[in-house]
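Action item from last week, closing it out:
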Amino acid sequence: MLINELPDDCLLTIFDYLNNLDDLINCYKVSIKWSQLIVKRTKKVKYLLESYPENGDCVFHRGTEPIDGTCLSTLFPTLKFAEISYGLNEKVKYKDIVALVRNQESLEGLTGAYASPLFNHPEMVSFDLCMQHIGSSIKQLHDVCDLASFRRNAHYFPNLERLNIDDCLLTIFDYLNYLGDLINCYKVCIKWSHLILKRTKRVKYFTEENLQMDHCVYHEGEEPIDGTCLSTLFSNLKFAKISDGLYKKVEYKDIAALVRNQESLEGLIAWSPFKHPDKPEMTSFDLFEPSMQHIGSSIKQLCGVYDLASFQKYAHYFPNLERLKIISESQYYDGPVLEKLKIIELGLRSCGGLFIVHSFQVMDSCPNLQSAHIDVNDRFFVDETIKLQYLQDLVISTYNDCENSWNDFERLLKKYPNLKHLALRNLWQITDEHIEQLVHILPNLLLLDVRYCYGVTQRAADYVQSHCKRYGRSIKFYFKDNTQIQSDWPQLSTKFERISRGFDFMKHCFLKDFLRLPHLLIPIDY
């Protein structure tokens, strides 16, 4: 006898032993006769659970293998309790889960980490309305993962007798800011992985050090971790530091995937970005390969560029750069014009026996530049035919007995007629006579800082004071006292910070040495 020739009562008895959702749905599809018998069997089901049931009133949906869920609302019209888990979401389309819940007239208990998103799923803008007719019957609501969403929809459940909210776990996870801890928690179980995702989607800053800032995760140390989930965990970064230490913790392909996945990345600190220390075949950080082009247009700050040649070759990938820091061997710049650049920090070094640096020639390709911090170690190239009309803040520091004469500096400063704030540091060439010439060269000057220029004396200070009185100008002049400038300009910081709040060169950069400049300037509105 074939199984299909068995009496209906016999088949129904067999189906009563089936409690795996996949098996029931497969049997439902065999024939019209079987589908009718399966419907009879499932009408007796009161509990739809993720775990294995202990009695015939239960059906379980363990595993994530996809199934056809279009018949769920037909099969289970009399549920008392349903576990809407992330696993079920992997198996069944969202619209079929919603149809299942809509169809329940007697549902009293709802649990599962996926129960909360039912109330605010972006594709179901009307789901709040469809919950009204079943909400009054629900007495238990378990594993709600979003207190804010529940607060908006709590009025749909006037008869709740028991409520479990996972905001406690989320609150705990919010205190985790070490990358290794977050990844370990992400791997614990499906529920934890989705809660960790909620936590990491709020992360804006990905740094090496623990900066103790809101929305910040750090990755210090070199202990290896599994980085395959990085691009999943962090999709909304604004600023990222890709350090040599991270290379040792995480595989290169996972770092590249992380950066590629960012749609809103605006600041990037990429120490050794153009040559991986352990992989010489990695000639660039992959920011400069075609697959990375789509993120280049969003980046506004690029810090830690160590190869001017590579940058000028690929600078067109970054049309919206507003701040750039380069520490590199010098060479003549013939890359694209950086139209939107506002702040530049250059530490170019002479090399190859040329004994010349091109820092100011690079600046010539930044027509709208407002602020610059330049560190030079040799004679610099000056093109007097180009003037930067918008440059207002300039810091120049030298070392190693830089051989530039005052005539070089005079020619240079005439290129910036609208300078308001000027600092010349460690320039042994500058004397009192040169200060007298300088105040005439720069008619809009408000602050002149020549501390550590030991050829300048009180005579220069007296001249500046006399000049201001004679021509109705106001110039704050400092040549030896560190405390006075900080007293007169308390808003200007001397504190070493890797990340500073506010896109403000004067506040965060003017009084600092080149190697103590912040890695990132975070706009106030972030």
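Closing note: The chain has 22 helices and 22 strands.
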